[in-house]
Amino acid sequence: MPLGDPQGGDFEYTDEGLPENITAVRVPTKNLSAGMKFYINLLGMDVVTEKESYAVLRRGNAVILMEVSDKVGIDTGFYIGVDDPYALHRRLIDEGVVFMVDPEAGPVGVYTSFRDGDGNVIRAVDRYAIDSF
After folding, report:
1. What Å distances lie between residue 75 and 61, 95, 118, 119, CA to CA?
2. Sign of CA dihedral 55, 45, 107, 73
3. What CATH number labels 25-131?
């Protein structure tokens, strides 16, 4: 139920305040410094903020909020956009990363999925395919 105008007048909604993008995604980790190494060393992310129980990592428009949690090994449900899912697959295979799905065509373009150091499932998709929607 809309609150309307506090002065008693009519109020009409516009597009203001509606979602435009996903600003960040949450990834649980048992050990913050160990969890961050995967994203820094293997995915080239930079540390924006690091506190005792969380850290914010970023590369381009991809922002990850890592939080210390006992519940790890989840399917995060998010996709990171990459220039080439096949190149990412080759790079991470060489580093011993466990893949759930080798690169294949999916509903949003060529994608792949893998597990991070805590066993969380991360997906990567061809960002150019997404741009064509």
Report:
1. 21, 21, 11, 9
2. negative
3. 3.10.180.10
In the chain, what are the domain boundaries? Answer: 25-131
Tokens of 101: 């799905």
pLDDT digits (tens, 9 = 90+) for 95-124: 999 999 999 998 889 999 999 999 999 999
Which segments within the chain are labelled E, that is strand?
A: 25-29, 46-50, 54-59, 62-68, 75-82, 99-106, 109-115, 121-126
> Which among 48, 57, 52 is positioned nearest to 32, based on CA atoms?
52
Give the separation between CA 111 and CA 9, rounded to whole angstroms.
50
At 71-99, the pLDDT tens digits run: 999 999 999 999 999 999 999 999 999 99
pTM: 0.84
Question: Is residue 124 classed as helix, strand or coil in its secondary structure?
Answer: strand
Rg over alpha carbons for the chain, rounded to the nearest Å, is: 18
